[in-house]
Amino acid sequence: MESCEVFEFANGIRFIHKYVPYTKVAHTGFVLDIGSRNEQSHQVGLAHFWEHMAFKGTRKRSAYQILNTLENVGGELNAYTTKEKICFYASSLDKHYEKNISLLTDITFNSIFPEKQIEVERGVILEEIAMYKDAPEEALQDDFDSILFDKHPLGNNILGFPETVSHFTKKDFEQFFAQNIDSTKIVLSSVSNLPFRKALAIAEKYLKDLPNFKSSHKRLRFANYKAQNRVVTKPISQAHFALGRTAYSLHQAQRVPFFILNNLLGGPAMNTRLNLALREKNGLVYGIESSYTPYTDTGEWGIFFATEAKNLERAKMLVFKEIEKLKKQKLSTLQLHHTKQQIMGQMAIAEENNISFMLMMGKSLLDMGKVEALKEVFAQVESITAEDILEVANEIFDENQFSSLTYLPE
Fold first, then answer.
1. Number of H helices, E strands in the chain
2. I need a labelling partner for 395 at 20 to 30 A (CA). Which of 57, 60, 90, 369 fits?
3. Which pLDDT does position 2 carry in this prediction?
4. Average pLDDT estimate for 196-223
5. Is 286 helix (H, G, I), strand (E, B) or coil?
């Protein structure tokens, strides 16, 4: 891609950099191909706990020093865990670029998991789990994952369960690190106003002498999806509903037309078909979304909304009506054009966010082995036909394959 270059060190770690001459802010981040799906049954929540513990002390820095290294100069240090990735990232003024990389390298590879800090952070995470359980819109997504990916690591809550989080020790963190860390599955991603050679020279100081980590861990592939429907009563004021199923993986060509289809149905815009039908025309919901998340070997599609319990059946009927339209009515030439223009505009706007773009580069390099230029992505979008969209609609929107989860007020 333009202004984006990649270098691979002898130990297998890759460095990817985008040169943005007009910015004064540097964004850097380690993206690790390790996530909650790497956990074994007794380790559920360990990846996320590790993300927290990375800030609690290294061989060179105390927790206090880690927090203040960038905060004292107006920078930001953060991290997150997903089903397939752990990311540690930092942003600061360009003159602190090296400080970003020095700190990120230290917390990623040199954490010592202090026992006292484990106990403190255990309480924090148990509170985080309780907080999400009290938020039905958050709990709905987690519980729906457990239905779609029944008894598979993809179905586990990223935060973990109280019974697992309560028992993790320093040894558990060290073992999880040793079992999963692999240099060939680590990317340092960077966006700044430094030319590539200057940025690479700084990265080299911290990365070239790191060990060549090797992992023998193999992710358990997901198979044998079975549709399930579940109703749960809770002490809540609204009914919450989730509908969906498994979908295309990152490596299936159908993900592109399905991504377009999902955006038309219930993406972030206010003029999606679901938002128009349920909110604008009928006032049944405050918000409704249709989300599609592709993983390396499968994918997840779902619709989520909340409404008054008395309106639930009507809302569900309208959802199924919009789905049926997409299965039976091929998009007109004008509709297809508008749909493509909308999604390309959204992509272009998203690329303007340098921190999001930095993280996307790292994930794309790990998952796809490359980062495509925007014009290449646009060409893929433009190549999709109305027949392509109709085909994926009829394949994925098979009602016999739908799972659902309903929260009803007690």
1. 15, 11
2. 369
3. 53
4. 95
5. coil
Give the C-alpha separation, 145 to 139, whole Å. 10
List Cβ neighbours of 96 (8 Å cut-off, separation of 6 or more). Answer: 26, 70, 73, 75
Can 4-207 and 229-409 be said to share one CATH topology? Answer: yes
Tell me if 202 sits within 8 A of 100, measured CB to CB: no
How many Å apart are CA 33 and CA 83, to the nearest integer?
10
Torsion of CA 268, 274, 275, 281, to 10 degrees: 170
- The angle, 0 to 180 degrees and rounded to 10, between the axes of the packed helices 170-180 and 115-133 is 80
Q: How would you list the strands of the sheet with 403-409, edge to edge?
A: 229-234, 403-409, 239-247, 299-307, 288-294
The mean pLDDT of the chain is: 96
Say what the pTM is. 0.94
pLDDT at 1 over 60: no
Nearest to 176 by CA among 51, 353, 263, 87: 51
| Sequential DSSP letters for 336-389 | HHHHHHHHHHHHHHHHT-HHHHHHHHHHHHHHHSS---HHHHHHHHHH--HHHH
User: Which tokens sit at 345?
Assistant: 């505009």
Of 159, 44, 80, 64, residue with least CA distance to 117: 64
Q: Does domain 4-207 have CATH number 3.40.50.1360?
A: no
CA distance 268 to 84: 23
Residue found by looking up tokens 């272009």 in the block: 348
Q: What is the pLDDT of residues 27-55, one digit of tens each?
A: 999 999 999 999 999 999 999 999 999 99
DSSP 8-class letter at 6: E
- CATH assignment of 229-409, among 3.20.20.70, 3.30.830.10, 3.60.20.10, 3.40.1380.20: 3.30.830.10
Buried b (16+ CB within 10 A) or exposed e, 19-48: bbeeeebbbbbbbbbbbbbbbeeebbbbbb
Q: Spell out the domain ranges in the chain.
A: 4-207, 229-409
Question: Which amino acid belongs to residue 409?
Answer: P
